[in-house]
Amino acid sequence: MKQLILTLLAVAITATTGAVQAQSPAPPTKGHRVGLIDMAHVFQHYKKFEELRSGLQAEIEKSDAEAKVMVERLQKGQAEIKKFDSGSPEYEQREKQLLDLKGEFDAFRAATQRRLARRESETFKVIYTDVTKAVKLYAEYAHFDHVMRFNRKGIEEITNPQEAVQTMNKTFIYTSSENDITDVVLQYLNKPYASGAPAPNTAKGNVVPAGRTRQQ
After folding, report:
1. In whole angstroms, what is the distance from residue 82 CA to residue 73 CA?
2. Segments of the chain scoring below 50 in pLDDT
């Protein structure tokens, strides 16, 4: 009899515990904060990118001017060679000069294309590094777990049909403005250009915008 009572008591306790656990809500899980940045907008309005791009454009114009002089020399040589009979010593001499000029021009053009492509690649690398360092600083400050690229333009701002299709296919249909960190990052990157101070060291700089408090 005593054993039976103990058994029934154990069953009752187990049932009660199970009911309480079933009624208790599961412990809340920490959500992930996702920040968004329009990288195209940042690149277009980052003063440092404008400066580097202007320098690249100046080098392109200088190379174009040098190439133009070489082309004019080739054209002049082609016009002069017509004055001589084919196979004559003068013709062969002019022909050799033309071949040398053409070889020089081809080598110049190939070397210039490689140099400019390398400089353009280095420019984008520098700017991308600056932006990603600033994004990391602000994400750590504002407690964003992830930062994703997005296009902040709405369909009403697009006139190009191809761009319109791309906009309609974008990942984020709607996002809260507080998750868009584009302007904060861009303001931080451009701050030295407005004040005339040296460029920021994004590895150690403070990307906290004035007047904002850290979110917990």
Report:
1. 15
2. 2, 4-6, 8-9, 11, 13, 18-22, 202-203, 210-211, 213-216
Q: How far apart are CA 70 and CA 105, in angstroms?
A: 6
Residue 182, SS3 per DSSP: helix
Distance in angstroms (rounded) separating the CA atoms of residues 150 and 171 = 7
Q: Are 90 and 84 in contact (CB under 8 A)?
A: yes
Q: Which residues are paired to 146 by β-bridges?
A: 34
Q: Cβ(98)–Cβ(77) under 8 Å?
A: yes
Contact 202, 133 (CB under 8 A): yes
94-145 pLDDT per residue, tens = 999 999 999 999 999 999 999 999 999 999 999 999 999 999 999 999 999 9
Number of folded domains in the chain? Answer: 1
- Does residue 80 form part of some domain? yes
Tell me the residue type at 150.
F
Looking up residue 42, the CATH number of its domain turns out to be 3.30.910.20
pTM to 2 decimal places:
0.69
Would you say 202 and 137 are in contact if contact means Cβ atoms under 8 Å apart?
A: yes
